[in-house]
Amino acid sequence: MSSQDIPEENLPAAQDTGHGALDVADEKNPFADPGVPPHEPRIQDIDERAAKRSERAVALLFTVSMLATIGFIAAFVTIPVHKTVYIFPLGHIGALNFALGVTLGVALFCIGAGAVHWGRTLMSDHELVQERHPIEAPADVRAQVFEDFRQGAKESQLGRRKLIRNTMFGAMAMVPLSGVVLLRDLGPLPEDKLRHTLWRKGKLIVNMNTNEPLRPSDVAVGSLTFAKPEGLEEHDHGFQNEIAKAALMLVRIEPEDIKDKRELEWSHEGIVAYSKICTHVGCPISLYEQQTHHVLCPCHQSTFDLADGARVIFGPAGHPLPQLRIGVNDEGYLEALGDFEEPVGPAFWERG
């Protein structure tokens, strides 16, 4: 007999489950909603000793995470880069990479496992059903959300379970240290290398083209001459690294045309020596305009006035070109009277 043959008054009444669905199927609603199963308390809900055991287990996982982070840092510092170990079935692998991978994996896993165990055993596990609502929530719904958040924070027992809270904060605070330590592997620390070049007091100024020491008579008025420190040869190991900081350009200007007092004191008979490296992004400066005493960087058109302390008059460069104080030795050759007073090239964060 089908439901059509049963009198309507004898059909079971459809009952609302309380959240918009019916718990009994009928013609209009062929699928019944079984509803949320009755809540069954966990052992931790009724036995404080079990709750304490779960708390200690979570705290242990967070503590292991902290120890693994310490192990990560210790492995990074103590294990040589080229050391290998045999791991079955992987074979011979780098000991440092293996140690870093294991310790970082344990640190992250223990934080996740601790959070999951905490949520499954100690946080509230009541299932709640709520009807969908418009995206824009009314004021009473927003108030309810804040109230639910406060209630959730209370039910999480974060304030009550201080052991869990403290170890969790410790684990989460220490894990980022792994990333900070990895920054050390980007290369050797520069220390003060960026502040010094090969120029020293007494270093002869050598012509880049002829590889011969320069005399004042070799630098004509209005000419641009490129130079390097004595003893730096192109076949030397690390030549490119050193010339990138020590490259020099010399220009002879009539002394009465030099506007900057210190520039005049650091020059010799109107010959001024400035770093060839642009202070924008480090391009080599190579264009000189004789009438205005301006030098131009070909990369981004930063322009410097060599008659006025090499100050920037146009372009993106942030500060003037560093000047090298020069003089003449007893044999009549141009020489440096020290190093550049400030770092050459683009600015960097330690620069004052």
From TrEMBL:
Indicate whether Iron-sulfur appears among the record's keywords. Answer: yes
Q: Which PROSITE patterns match?
A: RIESKE (PS51296)
From what superkingdom does this record's organism come? Answer: Bacteria
Q: Which GO terms describe its molecular function?
A: 2 iron, 2 sulfur cluster binding; metal ion binding; monooxygenase activity; oxidoreductase activity, acting on paired donors, with incorporation or reduction of molecular oxygen
What InterPro entries does the record tag this protein with?
QcrA_N (IPR045603), Rieske_2Fe-2S (IPR017941), Rieske_2Fe-2S_sf (IPR036922), Rieske_Fe-S_prot (IPR014349)
Residues of the Rieske domain: 245-335
Report the membrane topology from the UniProt record: Multi-pass membrane protein
One Pfam short name: Rieske
Where would you find the membrane-spanning parts of this chain?
58-81, 93-116, 163-183
The record's region (Disordered) falls at 1-42
What is one term from the GO cellular component aspect held by the record?
A: plasma membrane
The primary site where this protein sits is: membrane
Cell compartments where the protein resides:
Cell membrane
This protein's UniProt keywords: 2Fe-2S, Cell membrane, Disulfide bond, Electron transport, Iron, Iron-sulfur, Membrane, Metal-binding, Oxidoreductase, Respiratory chain, Transmembrane, Transmembrane helix, Transport
Q: What is known about what this protein does?
A: Iron-sulfur subunit of the cytochrome bc1 complex, an essential component of the respiratory electron transport chain required for ATP synthesis. The bc1 complex catalyzes the oxidation of menaquinol and the reduction of cytochrome c in the respiratory chain. The bc1 complex operates through a Q-cycle mechanism that couples electron transfer to generation of the proton gradient that drives ATP synthesis.
Give the UniProt family note: Belongs to the Rieske iron-sulfur protein family.
Cite the record's note on assembly: The cytochrome bc1 complex is composed of a cytochrome b (QcrB), the Rieske iron-sulfur protein (QcrA) and a diheme cytochrome c (QcrC) subunit.
What protein name is recorded for this chain? Cytochrome bc1 complex Rieske iron-sulfur subunit
* Species this protein is from: Streptomyces glaucescens
Q: What is the lineage of its organism?
A: Bacteria, Bacillati, Actinomycetota, Actinomycetes, Kitasatosporales
This protein's encoding gene = qcrA
